[in-house]
Amino acid sequence: MTTTAHTTLARSEAADLPEGWTLGRPEVADGAQLWRLARESEVLDVNSSYSYLLWCRDFADTSVVVRDGRGRAVGFVTGYLRPDAPRTLLVWQVAVDASHRGRGIAGTLLDALSRRVAGAHGIDAVETTITPGNTASERLFDAFARRHGARVDRAVLFPAAAFPGDSHDAEVLHRIAPLSF
């Protein structure tokens, strides 16, 4: 991938990011760091390291990673366009390194990704699923909706009984729309 995949953000766009950090599409080489961030989040479903490598290859256009001044991935948002609703960006996972949480980085990533995908694909909605009790994610997406003047509709997408075994909570769909960029 070219070096233009990661660009230093304008200060107005990256007010909550430290100087020298870069934001852009993930590269395959980021896969191991994304897997680590997901594992260390202690709230995300951690998929195989292989799936993060594939994600960075196959869904880079609908995902974003932020790197610190040393080039190390310290946060990401992964997503995809829903095949049956191609104007909807489904946000699959959001993670920020524990040492950088609480600084607005996840919101900056989500805003930058949605603007980029809207410019390329004309999205008008963002969806995600959140387990009950994950207040950090609920706050992130509620704040995103407020910043973009959209409403949030919630409905259980997958009840706990849909998952094998008894170790998974329900997944509540949060649909944020209408969006305009």
TrEMBL record:
What EC class does the entry list?
transferase
EC number(s): the record gives 2.3.1.178
For this UniProt record, the keywords arranged alphabetically read as follows:
Acyltransferase, Transferase
Q: Which GO terms describe its biological process?
A: ectoine biosynthetic process
A molecular function (GO) term: diaminobutyrate acetyltransferase activity
Which Pfam families is this protein grouped with?
Acetyltransf_1
Instruction: State the CDD domains in the record.
Output: NAT_SF
Under which pathway is this protein filed? Amine and polyamine biosynthesis; ectoine biosynthesis; L-ectoine from L-aspartate 4-semialdehyde: step 2/3
Q: Which domain of life is it from?
A: Bacteria
Name all N-acetyltransferase domain ranges. 22-178
Q: Which SUPFAM superfamilies match?
A: Acyl-CoA N-acyltransferases (Nat)
Family, per entry: Belongs to the acetyltransferase family. EctA subfamily.
Q: Give the protein's recorded name.
A: L-2,4-diaminobutyric acid acetyltransferase
